[in-house]
Amino acid sequence: MDKKIIEFKENNTPYSTEFGDIYFSVDDGMAETEHVFLKGNRLPESWNDHKHIRICETGFGTGLNFFMAASLFEKTKKKGQKLFYTAIEKNPLKQEDILKSLEKWRDNFGDVFDIFLSKYPIRISGFHPIIIKPDIILVLIFDDIKDALLEVNDKQDFWFLDGFAPAQNPDMWQDDLYENMARLSHNQTRFATFTAAGMVKRGLENAGFEIEKIKGFGRKRDMLVGQFQSDQKRPQERETCKEYRIAGAGLAGLATGYLFAQLEQKVEIFEKHKDAQHNASSNKIGLISPRIGAERIPAYEYYNAAFALFNRENKEHLNQIGTLFEPDNETKSLRFEKFKNNMSWPSEAIEYKDKKILFKDAGTASPAALCAHYAQNLNVQFGQKIKGADIWATSYHQNFDSFDTQKVRGQVSYAIAENHNLEHVHSYGAYVAPINKDRISFGATFTHWDDSEGVTEKDHAYNLEKLKLAHDDIKIEDGWAGFRCASKDRLPIIGPHEDGYINIAHGSHGMISSLAAAFILAYYEGLLPQPFSKTVLEAVSPQRYTKDK
Questions:
Q1: CA–CA separation, 53 vs 46, rounded Å?
Q2: What element of type H or E holds 523?
């Protein structure tokens, strides 16, 4: 994603070097958006009766259409309404290019613009949900549109058909675009687009849209608007529970409670232990890092989306010192090389050092401190036996034998290593991370056959043997040991189960995965638009254990 894709013309008007076209009108970009996409979709009148307003945009670009829609929503919204905005972009701009493009209009967008910039995602492929406000949720999908739309499940109320003109960007304006629009539309769904090209008109008509040609903006003579013709009614809005009982006060339960409370739901959390210091959530320091993959399999998509999400939502809890990954065998060397060649991470987020890879946005965080942050405004009751819950966020409250999970013990060692000069986390099969200039954390063991409680000298010795640090005087002073629930396929288990939801098996990625899981559960409850791809949702679903049986 480092190729040059933008230049600036007069009045800082952004221009695509790839498509040879402007992102919005030189005359007045805001007026163009109002005419084409807002008035073209008869907004706000057409959304007045919708509790959740769902808009899908093809071609996010600078975000101008989103900011205009969000501004209109804030001026006209009714009590209980929410704006769920999904936008697809193959070539996401850098944050500074968005700022430069829209700086002259930022005062028109209120605080939405600044919140967006503060949460702008790492520019990697996949779904990126962003809570702008409890009633304005944006999901950015960085991908080719023909792949992205196949991963969307939600029916849309309005289509903003943007992107560059068909003559410059013919790959977008193909039959699969219109067919997926039809799949994701209902009998009230409207669309608007700046173009009146014959191929676009025919494609939309063939897909079932009734077309109307109206006056275009500025120098454009015509544009197209219309409505989907179908007997498929608009899906009924899900009535949210408003009050949720969550079993488990570890990272999974607390992250879910924290997000649901942010989304204005009432939450009670019950924990059988007498305090929060138990299992993996009590570790002093843990790693926040992405996953290196040779191809975009579901695990790669999920964990990297979760990593990017944690960076947006918990930046103040992340010690962003970077993580340097070093392959420790030939298989990993090959995977690292394929990652470098295939995955197109932007240079602001990654640096290649021979066979090693430095992820600049990675680092460390404290699970215990993160739990305290999530819990500070929640009703958490300790020492409670739970018989029933809406969300089971612990594997230790009841028996989940139907899932292929295992109990894994891990031990981390803390040591004095004065002036160790460790700049980044170093991951090489094992890992070592700086706590401060004189102390390090390293490990970790990973054993599913060991039920030992507490820290053992045997595992300290194992961690020391694996440690890669040029230092002559390392003195172990403490350690941490705990148990995690992990699935055999190394993916968490998140989704509907029996009469509620399950949220377990986050393994060694608990800090990033637990937050992603909260977003998934909020989506199932109708509190958010679809936060991750259909493939990812299926990959982490409990149904993967039953669908073939």
A1: 10
A2: helix 510-524
Largest CA distance in the chain: 78
- Measured CA to CA, the distance from residue 81 to residue 199 in angstroms comes to 36
What is the C-alpha separation between 345 and 438, in angstroms, rounded? Answer: 33
pLDDT (tens digit, 9 = 90+) per residue, 304-331? Answer: 999 999 999 999 999 999 999 999 999 9
Q: Could you give the 3-state DSSP secondary structure of residue 200?
A: helix
Residue 527's pLDDT band, with cuts at 50, 70 and 90, is: very high
Where residue 241 falls among pLDDT bands split at 50, 70, 90? low
Torsion angle defined by CA atoms of residues 101, 107, 113 and 117, in that order, rounded to the nearest 10 degrees: 60
Q: Do 6-228 and 243-545 fold alike per CATH?
A: no
Q: Which of 3, 16, 9, 115 is nearest to 60 (CA)?
A: 16
pTM: 0.95
Domain ranges of the chain: 6-228, 243-545
Q: How far is CA 217 from each of CA 66, 193, 196, 400, rounded to the nearest angstrom?
A: 18, 11, 12, 59
The answer to whether 134 touches 263, Cβ cutoff 8 Å, is: yes
| 3-state secondary structure (DSSP) of residue 515 | helix
Contact in structure between 237 and 52 (CB atoms under 8 Å): yes
Strand order in the sheet with 14-16: 6-8, 14-16, 21-22
DSSP helix/strand/coil, 371: helix
What angle (nearest 5°) sits at the alpha carbon of residue 531, between those of residues 530 and 534?
A: 65
The structure tokens 């560059």 sit at: 164
- For residue 494, give the nearest of 518, 512, 526, 525 by alpha carbon: 518
The class level of CATH for 6-228 reads alpha beta
> Are the C-beta atoms of residues 411 and 459 closer than 8 Å to each other?
yes
Query: In Å, how far are 71, 218, 250, 530 from 272, measured between CA atoms?
Result: 46, 65, 11, 32
CATH fold, domain 243-545, is D-Amino Acid Oxidase; Chain A, domain 2 (3.30.9)
Helices (H) and strands (E) in the chain, counts: 14, 27
Distance CA 170, CA 228 (A): 23
The pair of structure tokens assigned to 126 is 């996949």
Distance (Å, rounded) from C-alpha 95 to C-alpha 386? 46
Q: Which residues contact 287 (CB under 8 A, 6 or more apart)?
A: 323, 362, 363, 364, 425, 427, 431, 433
Output the six-digit token pair for 187. Answer: 């009998």
Cβ-count burial 94-128 (b if 16+ within 10 Å, e if not): beebbebbbeebeeebeebbebbeebbbbbbbbbb
Residue 526: Cβ-neighbour burial (10 angstroms; 0-12, 13-18, 19+): middle
> What local confidence, expressed as pLDDT, does residue 148 receive?
97
Do 405 and 505 touch, CB atoms closer than 8 A? yes
Three-state DSSP class for 421? coil
For residue range 406-416, list pLDDT tens digits in order.
888 999 999 99
